[in-house]
Structure formats: C-alpha cells, structure tokens
Amino acid sequence: MSELLNFLLKHEESFRRIRLPSLYSDFRSQQAINPDGYKSNLTTWETGLTHAAQAGLIPGGKDILSLRTGESLLQALETREWGRPLALTPVIPLTFIAKAAAVVEGRMIPLPEFLNSPISIYERKEAGSPWSLVSWALRRIGLTRVQSVKFGPPKGSYVLVANVEKAAIEVMRTMDVRLSRIDRVVPMNVFAAEVAKTLELPGGLTNDDLKIMLVYLSRDKSYLAYNTQAVKFRAKGERSPAITSEDTNIASLKSLMVALSVQLESLTLKVTESDQKARSAVANKNRAVALASLRAKKLYESVFVRRFETLSQLEGICTQIEEAADQIEVMRVIQASSVVFKGLNTEIGGVKTVEEVLDGLRNEVDQVSEIGAIINEATQTTSMGDESAIDEELETLERQGQARNDERAIIETKKRLELLDSMVPSGLMARSGERAIERAQLDALDDSTIALGRLSIDSDETKATFQERSQEPTKQREAQQTH
After folding, report:
1. Dist CA 14 CA 50 (whole Å)
2. How far apart are CA 466 and CA 454, in angstroms?
3. How many beta carbons lie within 10 A of that of residue 168, not counting itself?
4. CA 223/CA 164 separation, integer angstroms
5. Contact in structure between 264 and 310 (CB atoms under 8 Å)
6. Do residues 250 and 182 lie in contact, with contact meaning Cβ atoms separated by under 8 Å?
7. Strand ranges for 120-174 from DSSP E
8. CA dist., res. 58 & res. 67, Å (int)
9. pLDDT one-digit tens code per residue, 337-376
10. pTM attached to this predicted model
11. How many Å apart are CA 160 and CA 130, to the nearest integer?
C-alpha cells in the first residue's frame, strides 16, 4: 500500500473501507441516476487529495499548493482488491473530477491559467469559469455520460485554492510584524526560506508553490509586490505596494549580507576542523599534517576577519538607510500636518476673525451678566415681602400653640386637685372653718399650679416640687388637730 493511500485510509473519515467499492467504481454514470451519491464521491476524492497534497504526499513532487495528475497518481492509488479508481482513468486522469466540480466552481485551477491570468480568482468566480461553458456544451451534445471522453482541462497540475488560502493566512500573519521600509523589503531567496519555515516545510518550498504564493499574495490579496530579485510587503494603510529601484538595491544589499553570513558560518566550521586536525596530527606526531592544518586555519581566520569586517560595514550602511527612510516618513508626516494646519487656519479665517468672534462673545457675556443682575434684584425684592408675611404667620402659629398648651396645663392641674380632694378623709372635712382654710389655700395654689403645668411634668424635679406643695394642707390640718 502506497504512502498516499495509507494516508487517505488513516486520516480521511470518508475513505472507510466499506466505501472503497463505490469510490473505486466508475461512478460517472450515477450523475443522472444517483446525483447525491455522485456528488458525495466527487467531494470525497477532492477533499482527500487536497489534504494529501497539503501533507506533501502527491507523487511527482513535494508541492503542497498544487496537485499533479497523471499515471504516477493512479499508481499510488492502486490496490490489489479494487485496482485503480475507474472514475480516474488514464483517458481522463483526474480531469473528470476537475471538470465536473472543482474547476467549474473555482476550487481547482489549472496551474498555467492561475499564473497567467490578470484577473483575480475571486473575480473569476463571479464571472464564471471557461470550463463551465465547456460542461454546458458537452451536456448539449450529450457527451457527459460517455465513458471515453477525451476532452477536458489540460493534463498537468491544478492549483488547490483551499490550500493556497490557508497557507497565505499563515504567511501574512508572520510577515505583518515588518513595520519599517527596510524590513518590508526582502530578497527573493529570503522570502522563500521564510515561507518554508512558516509552513513547516523542512525540504523548502518548491518552485511551483513559490510562484503560486507570489501570484496569489500580489494579484488576489494586494499584499506584496515582487520582481526577480526582491519582494516588498504592503505597509499599513497602503492599498497596493510597488517596487522601486531603491527597493531593488536594498534587496541586493540584504542578499549580500545573507551570503556573507553563510560564508562566516562555513569559515567558522573550517577553522574548527583545521584546529582539530592539527591537534590530532600533533597527537600522532605527524608534523607535516599539523603544519598544513595550522596554515589552513590561519588562512581561514584571515578570510573570516575580512568577511566579518565587510559584513559589519554593510550592516552599518543598512542602518543608515533605515534612518534615512525613517526621516523621509517623518518629513511626510510633517508635510501632511502642515497641510492640515493650513486647512484649519483657512476654516478659522485668520487672527482678525478670531478677535472679532471673541469681542462679540465678550459683549454677549456682558449682556447676559446684566440681565442676570436685574433678574436677581427683582427676585430679592419679592423674596423680602414673602419673608415678612411668613414671619407674621409663624408668630400667629406660635401664639396659638402656646394658648393650647396653657389650656391643657389648667385642665391637668384641676384633675390633680380633684384627685387630692378624693384623698382627704371625710371626718376631717366636718368643720366649716377648716374647709374655708383649705379653700383659701387651694386658691393660693392655683397660680403656682398653672406655672407648673407649663413645665415638663415628666421631670423628676417638677414631680418632687408638686408632691411637696400638695402635702402642705394635710400637714397644716394635722398641726391644728394636735393643738
């Protein structure tokens, strides 16, 4: 079993062994009889091969963004039990699937057509694919059910749009960290290496995948511009980037720096190897080999120093270019700011207009202050009349309240006196002289009792005073009886 078929059976749920008889049969005749089963088989093959291509398992190359059709693909799908998939015959090697669904709907696009089309693939989907017209023509002449139709899209490679979109998202996410102009310009070989690293491709990016990615990001996403030497990413707020001669020179400078870095790594390894070789020769007492190794080591070290100095100079130049580019950006911002200020000053109308507006504002404020003062004065006069009437009404209420309090005090005092009368024994009241004296004493107590009624009856001091005075008649009667 091939690696491709093993991948499909292991990772694709639709490639269950129970479905293999249907998938490997010539299901093209089911298009009219069983359209649901026909569509299901097409979708299963298309999805499985797309995922296999993304894993780099399609025979004929390590492309992950395109699918190569032909005999090698059929051989990789062949099994002992079911043979080759009959719907993918050599007469129409996978182009049957492409013509029937994926190409017509824009999910698979022939590689030459994808690379050479000046129109975005998304605009092409709206306008309709040329293969939709071909399918319509075939249906009109009754050839869609013919088993040996030899007409279809060109044999070769097909761009897998789903894989391209997924990879482009990862690449753009990685490259969005580049902010300065120098960082946004990279040599073509550096771009290919960074894309391979982003997509986790140890073997690197194939030429077809590199072309597909560049075309998609430039034409369909307007994310970058490129030529044979340089790739320039879009800046924030920029609609579509364009490569200038300065960008090409910057890319050449960076390419040279990358080459020098690689040379320095190689020279470092050679210096280490020569040193180890010399030490080994000394240990083996091989003087000639030791001397030759030391001479080679010195040579490599001298070359390393010169290359390192050159690289340092290039890095300094690159830093100066970046500073100059930043200054250009600053000047652009300043110029734009001056235009904004000029427009705002024009809208304001100059210093004279501002002075006139402020003078008018001061006059209006003064008028508002005068009107407020007049209104406050009238309000205060009215308030004074109202306050005098309120004071008079308050005094009347206080007098009425005092009168009610006096009446309550008199009533309470009389009740207490009647209580005292009921407390005196009946034998002691026989004599009229004594009653007269008692009445006189009670009359004398009226004034003091009324005064006591105005005080708080609940206080301890008032209660003591009242009890002491109320007991005086009783004490006098007891003294008279004693005499």
Report:
1. 13
2. 13
3. 19
4. 14
5. no
6. yes
7. 157-160
8. 7
9. 888 888 888 887 777 888 888 888 888 888 888 888 888 8
10. 0.61
11. 17
